């Protein structure tokens, strides 16, 4: 690593004070000695960086303090959100004081160091998000979203207009909305939020969207969103926003909030005792270093051309508790994404300075990687400070001082700064050229400016990029620029549906949807085009076709989706995509499938999808459809096969969960009269409580009692959906296990026993031989390893546990809402699967250690 010596000129004002505070430092002292404040020059020498790169200081206190967000405007100026009110002391006293600000930093002489600062806004209460818009900025402050404008171009806000008083959702910094990321589709997305925003016809519009992440967000070249949680470092959406959540009768279990890696290991280069759960065994290793992520934030998908080409498309994740930044190499595997650490054991960037606190990553017009360093000892909010951390913080003098902060830049060793082109003065044609720039920042910024300028005369120039451009992503941005300017036309989109590039065809499919909704002729043409080529389409195109089919008429929707689901029923993502396009048409689709030749033989994928359809029909609750559904069970006993059993399973599971008024039927279903069908009495009892017919009234007070509460029953039903997507592939849809894959879950002590032990298995996985219900299992009877599912959130794992502990005759009762979360915390540091013996010993040791 090379250190740029030019940074010394920045520190004259602040270095002497910092030197006095650090003069007693002694690197040979034990880990629990105080960590002194270092000058920026001293901190610079503490970094370990990936070879071939160098790190440079761009700005430091007093110019910038407590930076939590950085953005670059069209002229290359850096805007910094300074959360100066965060944790003034160990108790958070003074947090609501108006001391926050937003600064604009400039490098006036192009030497790579910020030398001028203008306060755009001050006297703010805990500002936390920023998006640069035409003439000003969107700013989140006091949990609200504001539009601020600089009318006289002096880089100071003149007006402040409330856009959304409910933007953040919470006053707690760790659980408040943030982000304001402008994505490829011209919407602003947010982490820890269900809202997105867009300027439409001169007014800022809020729209609902899927909930995502915790702090920070970015997107890749295709517009897929990346985010994370403090416990899970990297998640992404596999489909565009708001597709999979369309069908109110179906709850998707994949595609959104998809975990890219279960690797949680981090490799600090110094002791890290001052982490919130450092007292929990396994959080720190024998050397006192953090073992796994505990404060993952600000995942950044790098799309610049300055770092070596091997870094393009990597995602960098901040871990301020471990004083490091992790690098992830992202790979596309068919419809799925995965990520891995290219150098396990050594981080991309790490520091021996405990006060190095990376909180945000960005890139700018120079294509470099910028890291915001909050530079402080305490980063945990007072609402969650454990007694352990409180003692660490006070005894090691980490609560003070505050109001420091640095911005670092990472570039190749031979990199030299150059003057930034001011895009605010660029011509329209120049901006159109920038849509195809190698640096993703230029592509994004050019699209943003062109959309904001509202120049409708540029249509033909953009079409030229689409038709003749040699940069795939430039063509993509040209499409979305046309969309942002409301200049798209169907003639262009249909022509480009014949393009040789799948991504262009997929984009045209998305962009044709609103036209097909509004114009039957467009709908008809699109339907016929899809029917003519879908069988030759790639899986990614099939996924988009499944989503776009929502705008087809019923005949073409049934025909297209029927063919797709029979060919791709093994894909959980395509199953969910097909379901998202079938709202209120699920019963007709089920009838069509059952008549098709492809549904004469049973496969796990068909069984799962048939149950999804049945569940959606029950949630819809239409009496005629449900009466006909029950009639499908009225077959000869020898014909009561996998299809009927699947329908019955879904009916009984959803019946347990149903709390609405009984559904009125015209007559008694035959299933309640016949005694020759393989139906359990408990299933009949559940079904009878769902329906009323002449002569049968449901006595609400006499309904079957259960040890599961109404809320537990909801979790049980949701758990079935997660089980089908996550677990049924190995354990079977009936929980009986599958040869060469996994053992039975029925009557298994591993399922019915200690719920914490079950949570540990799901979180971390299990390997090696195991005994279940008195029978031993080992390879080749089962897979050598059951994989971890640590990227699933606590609610999903709890639902799965609720389901498998109370189905198929299992009757273990409710699962505590807190067991998964607390187990995740107390098993911090576990990064490999358990063996059966090791897990049982762990449980014995845990009980022993917690006994009075």
Descriptive notes:
The chain is of the alpha+beta class. It is built from 25 helices and 34 strands. Strands 2, 20, 21, 22, 23 and 24 form a six-stranded antiparallel β-sheet that branches. The chain has a five-stranded mixed β-sheet with strand order 1-3-27-26-25, with no helix packed on it. It has a four-stranded antiparallel β-sheet with strand order 4-5-6-7, with no helix packed on it. Strand 17 (225-229) and strand 18 (232-236) form a beta hairpin. Helix 7 (472-484) packs parallel to helix 9, helix 17 crosses helix 18 and helix 19 crosses helix 23 (794-804). The chain starts with a strand and ends with a helix. The model is unreliable at 1-32 (pLDDT under 50).
Strand content: 15-25%
Structural class: alpha+beta
Radius of gyration: 29 Å
**Helical stretch tally:** 25
The beta-strand count equals: 34
Spatial shape:
globular
How does the major sheet shape up?
Answer: 6 strands, antiparallel
Low-confidence stretches: 1-32
pLDDT averaged over residues: 92
Helix content: 25-40%
The N- and C-terminal alpha carbons lie at a distance of 53 Å
Kindly summarize this structure in a few lines:
The chain is an alpha+beta fold. It is built from 25 helices and 34 strands.
Key descriptive features of the protein:
6-stranded antiparallel β-sheet; 5-stranded mixed β-sheet; globular; 25 helices; disordered N terminus; 852 residues; 32% helix; single chain; 19% strand; alpha+beta
